[in-house]
Design goal:
The complex is a heterodimer of chains A (962) and B (559).
Chain A: H1 44-52, H2 65-76, H3 86-92, H4 98-111, H5 113-127, H6 136-140, H7 145-157, H8 176-193, H9 196-199, H10 202-214, H11 219-259, H12 265-300, H13 306-322, H14 324-327, H15 330-339, H16 345-359, H17 365-385, H18 389-405, H19 410-417, H20 425-450, H21 452-461, H22 471-487, H23 493-502, H24 511-522, H25 529-537, H26 549-556, H27 560-581, H28 590-621, H29 626-637, H30 650-666, H31 670-683, H32 690-712, H33 724-743, H34 752-763, H35 772-791, H36 799-819, H37 823-847, H38 851-857, H39 863-884, H40 907-931, H41 936-943, H42 951-961
Helix pairs in contact in A: 4-5, 4-8, 5-10, 8-11, 10-11, 11-12, 11-13, 13-16, 15-17, 16-18, 17-18, 18-20, 20-21, 20-22, 20-24, 22-27, 24-27, 25-27, 25-28, 27-29, 28-29, 28-30, 29-31, 30-31, 30-32, 31-33, 32-33, 33-35, 34-35, 35-36, 35-37, 36-37, 37-39, 37-40, 39-40, 40-42
Chain B: H1 6-14, H2 17-38, H3 42-59, H4 66-83, H5 87-103, H6 107-124, H7 126-150, H8 160-168, H9 175-189, H10 192-202, H11 215-232, H12 235-250, E1 260-264, E2 270-274, H13 278-293, H14 301-313, H15 323-350, H16 354-362, H17 371-383, H18 386-399, H19 404-417, H20 421-437, H21 441-455, H22 464-474, H23 478-492, H24 496-511, H25 515-531, H26 535-557
Antiparallel strand pairs in B: 1-2
Helix pairs in contact in B: 2-3, 3-4, 4-5, 4-6, 5-6, 6-7, 6-8, 7-8, 9-10, 11-12, 12-13, 13-14, 13-15, 14-15, 15-16, 15-17, 16-17, 17-18, 17-19, 18-19, 19-20, 19-21, 20-21, 21-22, 21-23, 22-23, 23-24, 23-25, 24-25, 25-26
Classes of the chains: A mainly alpha (962), B mainly alpha (559).
């Protein structure tokens, strides 16, 4: 076999304990992966190393002086002149068929084999972007191939270019690779047809040059030659596969012939000879494949050029699929396993895609268990923390294929399922797809255990459980799995408090809900909101002493947490159905669009008419459980209430409103009260309900004010000790007053001053983390009161009073921002301060045009205020950096250390903290812009944030800077 | 190769398997003999290794036919799986063989290889085994459909592989599920033998006599029927079946060719299932026989069966032909020996053979079933050491609460000796739901009796006790009979029935050598005679009671 050009420290293909290029274990998942083009590696070090070890060419024993003089002539040739090669020209000519090119070469070879061979080698050199040529004398001695190539390489190095056909963007090379592949396919085919592959040395002669080139220190030559060799091996594999089929056919024919009662000896001998020939050819191909694998692949799969590595691994995947009898074994799979840790993204992605095909091939399952046990940890790691999103997504798909084969344990499946809460939407969606597959598989197992779907339906049809659906099993399994995923992340008080702040407007979608929305898009069964509703309302779990009914009902019975997830599934289902069914096609003609709109309106009314009674029933059923009731109310958040105009809905709305009133006034759970408030605000947009709702809100507010005065009227807020029981009462009362101030203008109330004073006093209490929730409500209530203030067009006599009130509130907020020990309360105070300023500026724009007043309002953003805000923002960025594992970037010069709140490093917390930081940053930048206090130092501070905390925050900063 | 032409020489070279295969099998057979004679030893390993080397030598031939390679690899895997735990090697060899089968469309061979692969996966990756077998069942069903259409006569019954794969799923599926699958498939294709197999696996055989030409299947069916009866506590019915087994075993025409039982799909195709050797069968029959009569404390039949079974365990000869089966058989014999000891102890205790029971107890090691704890408690209770007995019962109930049978038995015994009525009532309440739901009705009967006893003779329970007495006869539980009769006679007072019941109870207790209950029932009889002024009978009974009292005092003096 031919020798390599160089004799470096290449591995001989033995078993390896470690991968050739180790991937760093401390990847930053938030940073974007660098492009392959930016990873163009310099060949200088490699070439220097190779050059220092280069052998001197062996002296030619023949001593032909003419050859030496001709080699010298090659070097002396004018390098600028373009050397013509007919094969290369034909290849670039799109009109010439590649088969014709191959056939013409063989015709030339039949006439003059040496010239044809030299022409072919020159063709290969042209494909390498090498403007050099050899002559017939060089191909006469195959042993001199390495020496000849060395000389060519030396002459080309001085004029080398990085642009060569395989990676060129020149238009004339746009189909180069595709046509080259076709040409090589036809070439190998012709070699086989003409028996040159088995009975001639021409193939070996050609390959000796190709193998020598594949070890060149020049990248264009090395890459192109490697591609030649890999493609040729691919086509040899295809030929080997054909021979295997022929072998099988001949074997069967021989068996049949031998079993005949009247044996045909001639036919048997003929078949035996045919079999012998096939076996011989198979052996020849197998020898070729093994030799070229050892000569080329073993070295090039570790090449410094990522493209070469990618090509090697892609072709290895093809070989394994084509000829598994040769390549599907641990000896070859391990190369793929090692390259899972390659530093290049494209290489890793290629390996993952190749492996997924293997795991999706049923016949390969027997040979993949050992590979799985060895490399699945790495694959799971790639799914969870790889730097490139594309690789992560592909790895999750690979994990799904591995799971389908049974190679993932339950704990490993859970690791992937956790990714449904990942911060990246693509990863989320792929993980949800994985989740749906897991659920389907589990459900099918359960149904098989209980006796198939038809049997189950028949059993239930004989009972009084008429609302039962087999899909309940699926919904139940989904809820149980999501519970397991959710509980794997430890929830903390700080997380819950932050979540409450940002759920205030009802538009915040929880990660679980987002996952379920994705599931609804993936599997239409989850859009069956009627089935889900019936499942939610079902409560007849008493034993019927009938199997499998009891087993199924026992399985479908959910605990509170699981029911909460089920309600979120129902919410996602409703959202998906509404979004999917009521989107007007853009291409529809106007008239048709009008008709479609009318039909959709009718469908929508019908949907709401069917849906609202279910929701009323669900809320009534779950009224005893605060958590479930909150999730039930959130079902209404999924619906566009302004679209509900059907008169038949009024009865259901009346019931809903009465229920909401009852929940608001009697329930002490903060989330319930907030939910009712949001729904009242939304229901107010329905014209038919305005009058009734107005009366109801007035009644609610009156009762709430009475309650507030009863609790706080004579209570020494600033100094008194609040007991546990009092705390619960106060918390609920303040939450209700917060809701009422959102619903109605309180400035007309005679008790307004007392309420205002009490709330300000509450904010002035000594900081106590136990009472933070009381201050949250107080802050929000004061904000609402100020909002109503700003909206009123008062006479000038009230301006002074308004200013005094504003000053009191702002002073309290500043005091909290500077002095309170609760960082979450500081955050809330900062957000309220910023929102109030933004709100005031917005109201002012519609009320005042006096420039003097504008200048007066800027006094609110005093330097000490700005410093306090920046300090708070920096603290949250510090926490976000810790949780998200980013490098922390300071905003201020303050030397005091930052303390991190108690949030674990998991995707849930990272998502929430991202939201917090983006919200706070955007509001701060808006206020600074409005106040016209931007300084170069300030801009510089925020400019440095770009790229450090993820794309969302960077986008906000970019918008500000622009 | 002097004198051989090129063609003959080539044939000889490429046909080396014709020589090496038989040679390898010779080594394997000799290894099996060594295994049966000496167990796992060095010579066995050497013989096995040499045989494998012969097969590996066949694989060295690069010109062998694909079928030869496939069969050689298959045989290597079978040997490795039977005698070693070299699963990685088996996987690699099987992988190549599967590829060959796939390439050459050798479907039957592919199925057999997949079956071997599933055995590997069952040990290395159970989930993968489940996936593999699920796919294989589906493939085999499709293959069977196609084969039926084309009526291929050159191959074995195509349905065979469906059954093979279904049976292989027993490794990770419960028996009833697998049995149902087999039953459905066999019922659809009218494979009667396989329907029978499904019923055996599901333990749902009808109690009628099963007509079959195979002695092995006949014995298997009878044993299954007995197991069904014992599971429900129907001892009398089990005793009726037992003579049929004995008769079959003693028959001159009885044949037990091997440990494998064949279930025929058609006249030629069959499924062979490993059950047990003839030696194992005799041990099992002795155990079953002893168990059937263990509740009959009036005779020593149970102890005789169990003693004989224990005796022949010492002479047990292994007939297994592979290491894994040998190890499994050894484990089986250890377990059955332990079971026989336990039941023998129980038999001795029920007949007050305390010295014999003590001797076996001292030589018995602790187990993981909790049954030994109950036996120790029973022994101490018989000796009159109620406090220590209570400790054993409580510990057993606490430590083995997850085993329903053990928990119920230990708690019932505990209730029987508790002096604290409140504690006894709490125990009764704790096990009442379990007894009511349990398949063995005997537990419920015992519960009822204990409740009646605890309520005292003042409460006239005219319905419960007669029902218990009747059902205890059906379940052939002698102890339950005489205890119930004693309690019922006490409640009848001066009625004539009281005498009859007391006499019956006394007779049963005498036969069971239960001195304590002899004394109790004797005193009831004595009181009855006094109440009806039959003073001669009263004095005679008083003398007997005095003797029993003396015996009991002697027993308690050792405490």
């Amino acid at each position: 076999m031919s020798e390599s050009v160089t004799t470096g420290s290449d591995d001989d293909g033995g078993d390896r304990e470690s991968s050739p290029v180790m991937l760093s274990q401390s990847f930053d998942p938030m940073s974007s992966s660098s492009n392959s083009s930016s990873e163009e590696n310099s060949d200088d070090d490699y070439e220097k190393t190779i050059s220092s070890k280069k052998r001197h060419p062996r002296p030619n024993s023949k001593g032909v002086n003419v050859k030496r003089s001709r080699r010298n002539a090659i070097v002396e040739e004018d390098p600028q002149e373009e050397i013509f090669n007919n094969l290369f020209a034909f290849l670039l000519d799109q009109k010439v068929d590649t088969m014709d090119i191959a056939v013409s070469w063989f015709a030339d070879y039949a006439k003059d084999n040496q010239s044809a061979l030299a022409n072919l080698i020159n063709f290969i050199l042209k494909c390498c972007g090498c403007n050099r040529a050899i002559n017939v004398f060089d191909v006469q001695d195959q042993d001199s191939a390495s020496a000849t190539l060395s000389q060519i390489q030396l002459s080309v190095e001085r004029t080398s270019t990085r642009d060569y056909p395989l990676n060129s963007k020149n238009l004339k090379f746009r189909n180069f690779r595709k046509r080259l592949t076709g040409l090589l396919s036809n070439f190998v085919s012709q070699l086989s047809i003409r028996n040159y592959l088995y009975n001639s040395t021409v193939f070996e002669d050609i390959m000796s040059w190709v193998v020598a080139m594949s070890s060149s220190t020049m990248r264009p030559i090395r890459h192109t030659a490697t591609v030649f060799c890999l493609n040729i091996m691919t086509f040899l594999c295809e030929k080997s596969k054909e021979l295997l089929n022929e072998h099988a056919i001949a074997t069967k024919q021989l068996e049949k012939e031998e079993k005949r009662s009247r044996v045909n000896r001639n036919r048997i001998n003929e078949l035996n000879n045919s079999l012998g020939e096939i076996v011989k050819q198979q052996d020849t191909l197998t020898t070729y494949l093994n030799d070229y694998f050892d000569s080329v692949f073993v070295h090039r799969y570790r090449d410094v050029e990522p493209k070469i590595r990618v090509d090697c691994l892609q072709e290895l995947g093809v070989w394994i699929n084509t000829v598994p009898s040769i390549f599907f074994s641990g000896s070859y799979l391990r190369y793929l396993g090692w390259m899972l840790s390659d530093i290049n993204t494209t290489v890793r992605l290629t390996v993952v895609k190749v492996l997924r095909k293997f795991f999706e091939t049923d016949s390969f399952i027997g040979g993949l268990r050992h590979f799985s046990s060895r490399f699945k940890e790495r694959i799971l790691e790639m799914s969870c923390v790889d730097a490139d999103i594309g690789v992560r997504v592909a790895s999750i798909r690979l994990c799904n294929a591995m799971r389908t084969c049974g190679f993932l344990e339950n704990s490993e499946i859970l690791k992937v399922l956790k990714l449904i809460l990942d911060i990246n939407p693509r990863v989320q969606r792929e993980a949800v797809l994985f989740l749906c597959k897991v659920v389907d598989e589990s459900v099918n197992e359960k149904i098989d255990l209980w006796g198939e779907e038809d049997y189950i339906l028949k059993a239930f049809s004989q009972t009084s459980l008429t609302t039962f659906s087999v899909h309940w099993i699926k919904f139940s399994q989904m809820c149980k799995l999501l519970e397991e995923v959710r509980l794997s992340y430890q929830s903390s008080f700080d997380y819950d408090t932050l979540l409450r702040i940002f759920q205030k407007n009802g538009n915040f979608i929880t990660p679980i809900t987002q996952a379920l929305l994705n599931a609804c898009e993936i599997d239409s069964i989850y859009q069956s909101w009627e089935d889900i509703s019936n499942f939610v309302l079902f409560d007849n779990y008493t034993s019927t002493l009938k199997d499998p009914i009891d087993s199924i009902l026992s399985f479908c019975k959910l605990n509170d947490f699981q029911e909460s997830i089920l309600l979120q599934l129902l919410s996602a289902s409703i959202q998906t159905v509404c979004n999917n069914n009521f989107i007007t096609p853009k291409t529809v003609h106007n008239k048709q669009a009008a008709e479609t709109t009318n039909d959709q309106n009718k469908d929508k009314d019908l949907l709401y008419l069917n849906l609202l009674p279910y929701i009323n029933s669900i809320t009534e059923r779950n009224s005893a459980s605060p958590t479930l009731l909150h999730d039930s109310l959130r079902l209404l958040f999924s619906m566009d209430l302004t679209e509900m105009t059907d008169p038949q809905l009024s009865r259901h709305f009346e019931l809903l409103i009465n229920n909401l009133k009852k929940f608001f006034l009697t329930n002490n759970d903060l989330q319930i009260i907030q939910g009712c408030t949001i729904l009242f605000l939304r229901l107010d947009s329905i014209p038919a309900l305005k009058e009734d709702l107005k009366l109801l809100v007035t009644d609610i507010c009156d009762q709430t004010v009475t309650e507030f005065l009863k609790n706080f009227g004579s209570f020494n807020i600033q100094d008194a000790v609040i007991t546990k029981d009092e705390f619960v009462i106060f918390e609920a009362c303040l939450t209700r007053i917060e809701g009422c101030t959102s619903l109605k203008d309180f400035s007309d109330y005679p008790e307004f001053d007392i309420i205002y004073e009490r709330l300000v006093s509450l904010l002035s209490r000594v900081p106590n983390s136990y009472e933070d929730t009381l201050k949250f409500s107080a802050i929000n209530t004061l904000q609402s009161l100020l909002f109503w203030f700003f909206l009123r067009k008062d006479n000038p006599a009230d301006e002074e009073k308004k200013k005094d009130d504003e000053t009191k509130v702002f002073n309290c907020l500043i005091n909290i921002m500077n002095n309170d020990s609760s960082k979450i309360l500081q955050l809330q105070a900062a957000r309220t301060f910023l929102e109030t300023v933004i709100m005031k500026e917005g109201v002012k724009a519609s009320h005042y045009n006096d420039d003097n007043r504008v200048s007066e309002e800027h006094n609110f953003l005093k330097p000490q205020f700005l410093d306090a805000l920046l300090k708070i923002l920096e603290g949250w960025l510090y926490t976000y950096a810790k949780v998200g594992q980013f490098p922390f970037k300071r905003l201020t010069q303050a030397s005091s250390p930052h303390t991190q709140i108690s949030l674990d490093k998991n995707p849930l917390n990272r998502r929430l903290l991202e939201h917090v930081c983006c919200d706070l940053t955007s509001k701060l930048l808006i206020v600074v812009s409005l106040s016209n206090t931007i300084t170069p130092e300030f801009s510089q501070q925020f400019c440095e944030l770009r790229g450090h905390y993820g794309p969302k925050l960077s986008a906000i900063v970019d918008e500000f800077l622009n | 190769m002097t004198g051989l032409n090129e063609t003959d020489a080539r044939i000889l070279v490429t046909s080396r398997h014709l020589f090496l295969w038989p040679l390898a099998e010779t080594y394997f057979k000799n290894a099996e003999k060594v295994l049966q004679d000496c167990g796992v030893c060095d010579s066995f390993g050497r013989l096995l290794s040499t045989g494998l080397q012969c097969l590996y030598s066949v694989l060295m031939d690069t010109k062998m036919e694909p079928r030869v390679e496939l069969l050689t690899r298959k045989r290597i895997c079978e040997v490795l799986l039977s005698h070693t735990v070299e699963y990685a090697d088996v996987e690699a060899i099987l992988n190549r063989a599967l590829i060959i089968a796939e390439q050459h469309n050798l479907t039957e061979y592919k199925f057999s290889l997949q079956l071997l692969l599933s055995r590997v996966f069952c040990r290395t990756s159970p989930k993968a085994a489940k996936v593999l077998l699920t796919r294989c069942v589906r493939e085999a069903e499709e293959y069977a459909k196609v084969a039926e259409i084309y009526h291929s006569n050159n191959q074995s019954n195509p349905h065979r592989w469906v059954y093979e794969f279904l049976l292989a799923t027993l490794e990770f599926q419960n028996v009833s599920q697998v049995a149902n699958s087999i039953h459905n498939y066999a019922n659809h294709h009218k494979h009667q033998h396989l329907q029978l197999l499904a019923m055996i696996l599901n333990q749902s055989l009808p109690m009628d006599e099963i007509s079959t030409d195979s002695d092995q299947i006949s014995i298997l069916c009878l044993v299954t029927q007995i197991a069904q009866c014992l599971r429900k506590g129907e001892i009398l019915l089990a005793r009726e079946i037992l003579p049929k087994i004995h008769s079959k075993l003693e028959s001159e025409t009885f044949v037990w060719p091997s440990s494998y039982i064949d279930f025929f799909i058609d006249d030629t195709s069959k499924i062979s299932i490993k059950w047990m050797s003839i030696n194992q069968l005799y041990l099992l029959i002795y155990l079953i026989s002893g168990f059937c009569y263990i509740s009959d404390s009036t005779s020593g039949r149970a102890s005789r069966f169990l003693q004989e079974g224990l005796r022949i365990t010492g002479d047990f000869k292994h007939q297994e032909r592979c290491v894994l089966e040998y190890l499994e058989s050894q484990k089986w014999i250890n377990n059955i020996t332990k079971d026989m000891k336990y039941y023998l102890i129980a038999t001795y205790l029920s007949r007050s053979r305390l010295s014999k029971a003590e001797r076996i107890l001292q030589s018995t090691e602790d187990d993981q079933t909790g049954f030994l704890g109950i036996l120790k408690g029973m022994y101490l209770q018989k000796r009159g050491d109620l406090k220590k007995a209570e400790v054993h019962y409580r510990e057993t109930a606490k430590n083995f609460s997850f085993r329903t049978d053990t928990f119920i038995i230990s708690t019932l015994n505990l209730i029987n000796i508790l002096e604290d009525s409140a504690a006894a009532s709490r125990c009764l309440e704790s096990i009442e739901p379990l007894c009511n739901k349990h398949e063995k009705k005997i537990f419920k009967l015992w519960l009822l009796v204990l409740k009646v006893i605890r309520e005292g003779p003042q409460v006239h329970q005219s319905n419960v006790l007669p029902r218990v007495i009747q059902q205890s006869s059906e379940y052939a539980n002698t102890q339950l009979q005489y205890i119930s009769l004693t309690e019922l006679s006490e409640r009848f007072g001066k009625l004539e029935h009281a005498e009859k019941m007391a006499i019956s109870a006394l007779e049963l207790a005498k036969k069971s050598k239960d001195e304590l209950w002899c004394l109790i029932s004797g005193r009831i009889l004595e009181d009855f005679y006094r109440s009806v002024q039959k003073y001669d009978k009263m004095r005679q009974q008083a003398l007997e009671n005095s003797a029993y009292s003396k015996l009991i005092e002697d027993i308690y003096s050792f405490v």
